[in-house]
Amino acid sequence: MGHTTKRLFSLIDKLKDRRLFFVLVFSICVVSFYVRIERIGSAEYIDEQIYVKLARFLANGHLASSSSLLDIYTRHGALLIVPNEAEIVAPWFDHPPFFAILDVPFWLLGVPRLLPILLGALSTYLVIYLLRENRIESLLAGIIFAVYPFAVQLNSMLFLDNGSSFFFLVTLALTSKFDKDKSEVFLILAGVSAGISFLCKETGAFSILFLLLYMILFRKSMERFKVLKAFLISVGIAAVWLVFGLLLNHALFIDIIGAELNLSFLSQDGYQAILNSAVRDFSITTPGFIMGDVSFVLLFSWISLGILLFERGHKLIKIGVSSFLITHIIMNYAWFQTWIGIYPFFSIAIAYVIYRLVHYSSSYMYKFLERSEIP
Prior knowledge:
Elements: H1 3-14, H2 18-37, H3 46-59, H4 70-75, E1 79-80, E2 88-89, H5 98-108, H6 114-130, H7 135-147, H8 149-155, H9 160-181, H10 184-200, H11 205-217, H12 221-265, H13 270-279, H14 295-310, H15 315-331, H16 343-372
Antiparallel strand pairs: 1-2
Helix pairs in contact: 2-6, 2-7, 3-5, 6-7, 6-9, 7-16, 9-10, 10-11, 10-12, 11-12, 11-15, 14-16
């Protein structure tokens, strides 16, 4: 075998060393955190201002903030008179408040955006973990997600979808652990995580749908029963928001939910908006370290995802992608921040395609070098 080929395979063998692999994983997560923290001081998007206010009021014991559904709150007498504040409503029912509750300590520290940034860095680790059976592919996926332009952009902004996406990945990771070890405790924790994903934002319903689709795949009744318990746990946790809202102010809560459903399900141009937001640059300034138009990244991402979905294996990844897309189609969500949950799958798919291309090309190169070597 040629010297160059030996060095290549020697480098690959070194990745089998756990300490080296851990150092590489940690380094990738640090890079992921760094490129996101770089944007912590950028201008706030209007939705972020609402969630920062929500965290501030929650810190003082009030479920209150601004809302785009002001007319409904006004009709129910839910305006809160606060000095030096305009158009504050209470109780605030636009979305479940769990992510804002998690953000309260960060608001008290004066860095409310630090929470999604930390979750983005931790999501990088989860992306690597999901592909742990192939260390090279997993590291490649982690690197791609760490610097994926849209993930970097949105993970550095205070969107509730960062919470639902993170706990979605936690649900997948715990389910993959159960898939391997068959320990029911991981499945129960997956159910808890899926429920929390919904409590961060109702789009987190894709986490619950994931468990439902995962359950359907099992033919053995005992295994299905285990997954069913996890699914019911997730539904029960998600229902906490429904019960809480109905008990606090049922008339207002029902009207707000009705308005949200009307915006999601009945918008005539909603499905076209979903298509547009799926394939276009979201009109957000790309991170400073990436120059020029990055629309080609989305195109390559969708192509790679399509290739991955038609290949064998990656069962949980395929279920995750399916549950995410089905939820978006049903709920008719077309806002750019709701796509945060697809970027980990894009990174995994791109890594899969690149790894296969390099693997096949290196195989041909190896055979060529073997034939070309001088005895």
